[in-house]
Amino acid sequence: MKIRTITTGITLKSSSEFGLIKPVVEFNRKAKEIFECEGYEVQTARITTNSWEEYIPGSSNQEILREIQKIEQACLNLDVGFFNIGYASTPEKIEISSDIIKNTSVISCSGKIGDAASGINYENIKSSARVIKRISEETENGIGNFRFCACCNCKPGIPFFPAGYHAGETSFSIGLECSDLAMKAFSKSSDLKEAEHNLKSIFETELGKIQEIAIRIAQEGEIKFAGIDASLAPSLDKNESIAFAYEKLGLGKFGQPGTLIISALITRVLKGLSVAKCGYSGLMLPVCEDFGLAQRSDERKYNLTNLLLYSAVCGCGLDTIPLPGDIAVEKIEAILLDVAALAISLDKPLSARLFPVPGKKAGDMTSFNSPYLVDCKILEME
């Protein structure tokens, strides 16, 4: 198990409050050192804020972009590699997201397409679809969509980007890369009942250790510990693949019948853990972030509709989905509508991070050349 991220959230009232960033950088550094001294690999340390609409001034897109670029420069000066400015909640502000992504390198953001209180926001979905399409056309290989997503019913405190945003007092949370725990649990299970017992046991033990360290860090740093996002996050290591862990239970390859019940089993375990939880705390199935998921996608064992089905019993939605570069905006909009419908109907947090790849068609291989992604075939749009 690795720590994918230590994410500290701050509330900004002005884009000029650069002074608040430096102490958070120092806190993240110390927290990372403590976890590493305890034997954990820490992949990233991140900072997230409240919605940028609350602190970015400017009456024009150019003025807003200049303010965000000032924040980016402050981050670069402090060697901050991951900074999330939260969500935009109006069509006009969501539309600016493509310029934000195009003109920055460490900034992430999202478009809010609905919540349980107000329902689906159809205009925001249209804007988010246009943004996803523009980002794909305006960044190399469309990789800019790694830093943008459409999110529905997502609450503050998600440590994973780009859906994360913050509210309230300064606090930190932990996001894990822990698909190896599922591999260990399922490898020694003879049936689903035993698999659930083993998975719960290993997660309670391992996350309990993380929580003890995090509480100590909170006390020493005098910063609130907001919890662990217990999501079963993926790995680029084929020996730790979520898909291959599923297959240890003998119900066939990932994507075949039996996949849904295992997804529900995993989510049930994660939701029932006794540690302090935050964020999605569900099952993540990002196609381009897991070796086995990419391989089974290449073999056409599952498709976009299957992933939506699995989202009904897990989370976090559709993540790192490679799509044809010529996909119509209306088709992207339809995908976002389906994600929003699930999120609202089931009252759960879901997001969509879609990767239209310019110049590629269904069946072509991606070529992201990214340390965070595995290449796979572009999904068929049936």
List the helices and strands and how they pair.
Blueprint: E1 2-10, H1 21-37, E2 42-49, H2 61-77, E3 83-88, H3 91-95, H4 97-102, E4 107-112, E5 114-115, E6 119-120, H5 122-138, E7 148-152, E8 171-177, H6 179-187, H7 192-221, E9 224-229, H8 242-247, H9 259-271, H10 291-298, H11 304-311, E10 317-324, H12 329-346, E11 350-357
Parallel strand pairs: 1-2, 2-3, 3-4, 4-7, 8-9, 10-11
Antiparallel strand pairs: 1-8, 5-6, 7-11
Helix pairs in contact: 1-7, 5-12, 6-7, 7-9
How is this structure best described in words?
- 40% of the residues lie in helices and 18% in strands.
- The protein folds into 2 domains: 2-152, Anaerobic Ribonucleotide-triphosphate Reductase Large Chain; 173-276 and 283-357, Anaerobic Ribonucleotide-triphosphate Reductase Large Chain.
- The mean pLDDT is 95.
- It has a 9-stranded mixed sheet with strand order 9-8-1-2-3-4-7-11-10. Strands 5-6 form a two-stranded antiparallel ribbon.
- It is of the alpha/beta class.
